[in-house]
Design brief:
alpha/beta, 6-stranded mixed sheet, 17 strands
Length: 376
């Protein structure tokens, strides 16, 4: 969206949720691009903030300045926003004009992350104490190869250290850096690559799965040994469609912590070879379509051939695949599989939220730690 409007000479602003206190529909890191014509890409809420956020983004574009705006959704009768939000949270949103001439502008930093599958840390600076002060915005990127991109001078050494720690520990954090003259808050955001879903099988029942994954922004690969099934025109939402023997599949796939597999060929021997290839790789999720007896037979056959799977290896194999939601149709089965994958990657059990006594999002994740800067 940014590339398209930039070609037309249109100006844009990026709205980013940089901090949340209490509840909110979207969490820190949610982003929305706004064009000077009022077009929106992405979202920072369920729709309740977008109207006012559009006006603030246009103001940021017109005045050519970065602004921090606070939305208090605790009051169900919030007249200022014109609707009863009732989310019970305080949401800080940063609005940054995006300048094409700045090669380290927020969009270019995001592009640097997305250009290949990699983990990265993105730092956004803002001032909660003085919203009229300069708001530095998105200003620092640490990439997987150790490369650093920055568009802000005189950043404290401790910020670089905290950024490196965030990468090493794979966790986001908030720091309030305090000096004798001023203070600013940093949203140090650890970013994972998009989920890579590898669907082994190109039957009609895998089409809804590919479509749902695309809606979520997942990168989907469809693979089958049957050339008449594995066709790009059958899977327009997939990133790539490959025809391959099972023993050659992993030569064409990059496996990382966000790569998951769903074995759905309805061909026992094909799935069997694929499972054998996968269990010795560092794969976080392997879904096997079919009844429990099928998977039990596969595991027994592996053992008979000298491959006795450990508890850790067995823990990543999900068969029958999916959550128990009473799925019958291929679309419902796809929903069940997608939900199980999401829960697994998030470290959740997939239980009903109403039965949980805890907050949906842990409050500790947004605690701001104070860091005093020593005088130079």
């Amino acid at each position: 969206a940014y590339d398209e409007v930039t070609k037309q000479g249109k100006r844009t602003a990026l709205a980013t949720v940089v901090h949340v206190e209490g509840s909110s529909y979207r969490r820190p890191g949610a982003r929305m691009l706004v064009t000077e014509e009022g077009n929106l890409t992405g979202a920072i809420s369920g729709g309740c903030l977008e109207g006012d956020a559009l006006r603030k983004a246009l103001l940021a574009i017109t005045e050519n300045r970065t602004m921090l705006i606070t939305y208090d959704t605790n009051d169900e009768d919030d007249a200022k926003l014109g609707m009863g939000l009732g989310c019970n949270g305080i949401i800080q949103v940063l609005f940054e004009p995006v300048h094409k001439t700045n090669k380290n502008n927020p969009i270019d930093l995001l592009k640097a992350i997305a250009e290949k599958r990699q983990e990265a840390v993105l730092v956004t600076l803002f001032s909660l104490q003085d919203k009229k002060a300069k708001q530095p915005g998105t200003c620092l990127l640490l990439k997987e190869d150790g490369a650093i991109k920055s568009n802000e001078a005189d950043l404290p050494d401790v910020l670089f250290s905290d950024t490196k720690n965030a990468y090493d520990n794979q966790i986001s954090s908030f720091k309030n850096y305090i000096s004798e003259t001023h203070s600013f808050t940093a949203f140090i955001e650890f970013i994972k690559p998009a989920v890579s879903l590898v669907v082994v099988g190109a039957g009609n029942d895998t089409m809804p799965l590919a479509d749902m994954a695309a809606i979520l922004g997942w990168e989907t690969t469809i693979i089958d040994g049957r050339a008449n099934y594995a066709k790009a025109e059958r899977f327009p939402s997939a990133c790539q469609v490959l025809v391959s023997k099972p023993e050659d599949i992993l030569k064409q796939i990059t496996i990382d912590g966000q790569t998951v597999f769903a074995l759905m060929t309805h061909n026992y021997n094909y799935d069997m070879v694929m499972l054998k290839e996968l269990v010795n790789r560092n794969v976080v999720y392997i879904g096997v379509l079919g009844p429990r007896k099928k998977l039990d037979r596969m595991i027994t056959e592996l053992k008979e051939n000298g491959l006795d799977l450990s508890a850790e290896q067995l823990s990543v194999i999900h068969g029958p695949v999916g959550l128990d939601i009473g799925a019958e149709t291929s679309e419902e089965i796809a929903l069940s599989i997608i939900a199980e994958i999401k829960a697994t990657l998030a470290g959740k059990q997939g239980k009903q939220l109403r039965n949980s006594k805890d907050a949906i999002h842990p409050r500790a994740a947004t605690i701001i730690e104070e860091v005093k800067l020593s005088a130079k």
